[in-house]
Write a structure and sequence with these properties.
Elements: H1 3-11, H2 16-32, E1 37-42, E2 47-52, E3 62-67, E4 70-75, E5 96-100, H3 109-120, E6 133-139
Parallel strand pairs: 1-6
Antiparallel strand pairs: 1-2, 2-3, 3-4, 4-5
Length: about 150
């Protein structure tokens, strides 16, 4: 199975609504990051797509974290990004995130600014040419459910 085929199987584990959102956000992020690497993790808690200039996870600048509860955009060094509109959530020493209700959130000016600054501040610059690499980094055998559970009344 190719890495792209693997990604499609990972996305297929989600509810149809989240599948559509994940695909839309991924398409938008791939436009932001046409070079570098797209790192894939199908872990216990989250399905994650990280974007960075190299294949090293420590170089990633943003990631999309997906669970049965929805999709978030994580800024790996978000604690140091200027956020005058206070759109970033979280209180850790490093990472901040935005909950994504739709891919259109990525077109809001304050989010576009955050993405631009995150790219500018990358420790390793993104390649100016070439193709993006898709790399499946890890797949956990045991995972939380990717679909919301409906309880009977």
């Amino acid at each position: 199975m190719t890495p792209e085929q693997q990604v499609k199987t990972f996305i297929a584990k989600f509810d149809p609504k989240n599948q559509a959102l994940i695909r839309q956000v991924r398409t938008a992020l791939r436009e932001w990051f046409p070079t570098g690497s797209e790192l894939v993790y199908d872990n216990y808690n989250f399905f994650v797509l990280g974007y960075g200039p190299t294949d090293r996870p420590s170089d990633a600048v943003v990631s999309m974290a997906c669970s049965s509860n929805g999709v978030g955009l994580c800024f790996i060094h978000g604690a140091t990004l200027p956020d005058p509109k206070k759109v970033l959530r979280g209180a850790g020493n490093q990472t901040r995130f935005i909950h994504l209700d739709s891919a259109e959130t990525l077109t809001r000016p304050e989010v576009e600014t955050l993405l631009s600054v995150a790219i500018e501040r990358a420790r390793t610059p993104f390649p100016t040419s070439g193709k993006r690499k898709l790399i499946v980094r890890s797949v956990s055998a045991k995972q939380r459910p990717r679909r919301t559970r409906v309880t009977a009344r």
